[in-house]
Write a structure and sequence with these properties.
The protein is an alpha+beta fold. The chain is built from 4 helices and 6 strands; from the N terminus they run H-E-E-E-E-H-H-E-E-H. The strands form 2 sheets. Strands 1-2-3-4 form a 4-stranded antiparallel β-sheet. Strands 5-6 form a two-stranded antiparallel ribbon.
C-alpha cells in the first residue's frame, strides 16, 4: 500500500476536526508500524514504513474516548515512553476551559504579596495569592482543568488555544 501521510497533516484544534480525524484514524493506522505503547494512557507511537513519518495516537473522554492519530516529530522510543507528546484534543479542551474562566473573571493585583513562600508576585484582589497560584489551586481542587501532560511540538505550541 502507498503512503498517505501527506493527506493527514496537523488538524485544527476544534471539535469538528477532531471528530473527523477520529473517523479517519482506523485507515491511517493500518498503514503504520507500531513502535511502542504506553500502558495507562493507551497511547501508541507509530511510524510510516514508506516515508518514515512518526505518529502518535490520543484519546479523550469528551470525544467518546475515540482513538485519533496525529503526526509528531521523530523521537527515540525510550524518550517517548518517558514522556509522550501532548495530545492535541486535550490541549484544545484545556484552552477552552482557560478561555471560559478568564472571560468570566478579572484579576486585579492588590497591594499584598502573594501568600506562597518566595513568590515575588502580588496577590490578586479577593485572594491571598497571585494569579498563577490562584489558577494552580483551582486546578488542584478540580475546579479548573489541569494543563495536559506531554511534550509540546509544532504546530501545537506553548500557548494554549483559545
Amino acid at each position: 500500500m502507498e503512503c498517505t501521510c501527506s493527506q493527514y497533516r496537523a488538524f485544527d484544534l476544534d471539535r469538528r476536526s477532531i471528530y473527523k480525524r477520529i473517523k479517519a484514524t482506523p485507515a491511517i493506522l493500518k498503514l503504520l508500524l507500531l513502535l511502542a505503547e504506553s500502558g495507562a494512557a493507551k497511547l501508541k507511537l507509530l511510524q510510516c514504513p514508506h516515508c518514515g513519518q512518526f505518529w502518535q495516537t490520543g484519546r479523550e473522554m469528551t470525544f467518546g474516548n475515540g482513538e485519533y492519530g496525529f503526526q509528531v516529530p521523530a523521537i527515540i522510543v525510550e524518550e517517548w515512553r518517558q514522556e509522550p507528546y501532548l495530545q492535541p484534543a486535550a490541549w484544545m479542551l484545556y484552552g477552552v476551559s482557560q478561555q471560559s474562566y478568564y472571560a468570566a473573571n478579572t484579576f486585579e493585583p492588590s497591594d499584598m504579596p502573594c501568600g506562597v513562600a518566595q513568590c515575588p508576585n502580588r496577590a490578586i484582589r479577593g485572594s491571598g495569592v497571585c494569579e498563577h497560584h490562584h489558577i494552580e489551586q483551582l486546578q488542584q481542587f478540580g475546579l479548573l482543568r489541569k494543563r495536559p501532560e506531554g511534550r509540546l511540538f509544532h504546530p501545537y505550541n506553548a500557548t494554549a488555544p483559545a
